[in-house]
Amino acid sequence: MRGKAVIAGVGHTRFGKLEGRTPLSMIVEAVAMAVGDAGIDKEAIDAVMVKFPTSKPEFMFGQQVAEALGIQPKVGGVWDQGGAANIGLISQAALAIEAGLCEIAVVCFADNPKSGSRHNYSRPHGADAIHGWYGTPAGYAMIARRHMADFGTTREQLGAVAIAARRHGAANPNAQLRRPLDLDTYLASPAIVTPLHRDDCALVSDGGAAVIVMSAERARKLQVRAPVPILGFGQGNTSWSVAQRPVLTTTQAVVSGAKAFEMAGLTPKDIDVAQIYDCFTITVPMTLEDYGFCRKGEGGAFVSGGRIEIGGALPINTSGGLLSETGMPGLQLVIEGVRQMRGEANLQVPHAKTCIVSNQGGVMTTHATLILSQ
């Protein structure tokens, strides 16, 4: 599958609090922008693949999206992997195109938890709620605490992730949060669930995004302006709840990343820029460890000293990530990867030829990896 499919177009709405906007209306806007970016006719799209809105899941939502777009697709529906669904759907689109089930797919997502309901982010987690486990941060806090206990990871090292994201977001005119962060401010931010504090946590955001996937051959025939080849992809699902996992500091990102690197014929040393899912700061060092950028337990040291900032050895989340650009789960990271490969990013990494993108869902429950090139 190396290089057989491309991302031909990308689009997104504004991010932040978008009063009066529904997920459907934001998807339509984002898809229209992606179609325009690809320079194709909407009628050429024959697959509509959707991550459902987390704040208000709806039955047959994929078909509602197709109707709103005015498309009767050959392939369509909703994929449920939480934040990993976006890359999961891009992978499924590439496979469906290779199998001849469709020719051009749109992968899209939108949600409005900022102006609407965020109940699903703060709900109690089953029987564990009697022990105080309410909301998503609690599970990540347990994982962060275990990583600290096992490997000596520090808050200052987690702070390096937040500081890098906020530095990049401050330079991004589309970012929801454009306020730089220093270490003293980070350390003084209020606790959410110890050891995670406010600036360790992703934003809550309204917004929508979409990408167009087609074969490299079709992109040539349609004279697409700037198609970005997909070199590799992979998935891995931890699946078990946090309380049932025998080890908290390793996830199936190991499997997902290994498959993507194998397909791409690359190793971590070949990657120039990374867009790593940063719903909480702890996910970045752990994902880098699981992908093989450093050994297990060395992620905290790896992200420190400006290494992951623009100008560093491995710039990460160059548009601000979930901590600064938008908390919407994952597709914006793919879009920034595409822009880096096109040479069109706001904070462009010079001479970047490869980009790895990670998505995850739940509490490090699902994982998907994508490797892009020029």
From TrEMBL:
Gene3D superfamilies found in the cross-reference section: 3.40.47.10
Residue span(s) of domain Thiolase C-terminal: 234-373
Residues annotated as signal peptide: none
Source species, domain of life: Bacteria
Protein name, UniProt field: Thiolase family protein
TM segment ranges: none
Stored Pfam families: Thiolase_C_1 (PF22691)
Top-level taxonomy: Bacteria, Pseudomonadati, Pseudomonadota, Betaproteobacteria, Burkholderiales
Coiled-coil region: none
Organism encoding this protein: Paraburkholderia podalyriae
